[in-house]
Design a protein that fits this description.
By secondary structure, the protein is an alpha+beta fold. It contains 4 helices and 8 strands; from the N terminus they run αββααβββββαβ. A hairpin with a 2-residue loop joins strand 5 (95-105) and strand 6 (108-115). It is globular.
Length: 145
């Protein structure tokens, strides 16, 4: 795609980019899960975030552990649409899952992600005990150039 994140300047441009990322990600809701999948035929968790960001010229590795090294670490409470959230089964364990933030408001954080059991779905981290208990870090990957 010719969509360059680098054309965005200032707050307004960033907000637009974040909204566009969410809109594009939501188009793929319902896509089936596929191990190591990086295309709309099937995604795994990091294949999905890799695919979505690539549409906006944001290069990410396709492995969730590596994606956690990209961009800038942010506090979970500051996570916005377009940011990534990483999950660990234990504090010292390695990253095993990543989701893309859709919204963060009084209802909690909603993320879209490719879940191995359900494919690309939207979950609220406030009400989903399974994922909430495994949140590790949040990253803003839109800043990298």
């Amino acid at each position: 795609s010719n969509y360059s994140a680098r054309n965005f300047s200032g707050k307004k441009g960033e907000t637009q980019l974040r909204n566009d990322i969410v809109r594009f990600a939501k188009k793929h809701e319902g896509t089936k899960y596929k191990y190591a999948g990086k295309t709309p035929k099937g995604f795994d968790c990091s294949g999905f975030t890799h695919f979505v960001m690539k549409e906006f010229d944001i290069e990410l590795p396709s492995v969730s552990r590596a994606q956690e090294n990209e961009g800038k670490k942010i506090a979970l409470k500051d996570a916005q649409a377009g940011d990534l959230i990483f999950f660990r089964r234990t504090k010292s364990g390695s990253v095993f899952h990543v989701g893309l933030v859709i919204s963060n408001n009084s209802k909690g954080i909603s993320m879209i992600h490719s879940s191995s059991s359900r494919g690309v779905v939207i979950d609220n981290l406030e009400t989903n005990r399974y994922w909430k208990s495994k949140i590790a870090t949040a990253r803003n990957v839109l800043l990298k150039h």
